[in-house]
Input
Amino acid sequence: MAKITIYVPDQEPMKVSFDEKAEVTVGRGSDNDLIVDHESISGHHAKLQLEGDTYSLIDLGSTNGTKIDGIATSNGPLSNGTQITFGKVDAVYECEEPVAAQEEGEASLGEGEAFASNMEVEIAETSAKPAGFTNLSPLEKVEEKNQFGKIAMAAGVVAIIAALATFGAAAVMKVG
Output
């Protein structure tokens, strides 16, 4: 069963099942199947169309465009986990992937077997955010405290050590 979770800014995420409808329209207009109330969404923004056993996304000439996995597009196939952006509204498409019928002559992995590849990979030295990346985390970014607080803490520790040293020296003088 296909589903989509829509993340409209400043609203709770909206999760909707398609129930295998042949076509699901998305837009601000009241005649859409998925009504998304956001200024960046056109009246009739896009549609999700069932083709065989998978859905494809088709932009309906929207003003602010549509992206699939961060790439602007007018149409494209969807698979489980595909990130869609309608204007400035993010969404994630989910579906149960059909088990592909195995072609004759294709190998299959048995229990405990591993897939062998001649592909060479390296760990990246640096990384960058993909184009169009938006953080969907509900947690706010933690800002580093200012340097003044750190300096004040260090000065306090030094003052305590100096006071202990002074009292220790005075105690030694009284005994001696």
Notes: The chain is about 15% helix and 25% strand. The CA atoms of residues 25 and 32 lie 5 Å apart. The longest strand covers residues 46-51. Residues 99-109 have pLDDT under 50 and may be disordered.
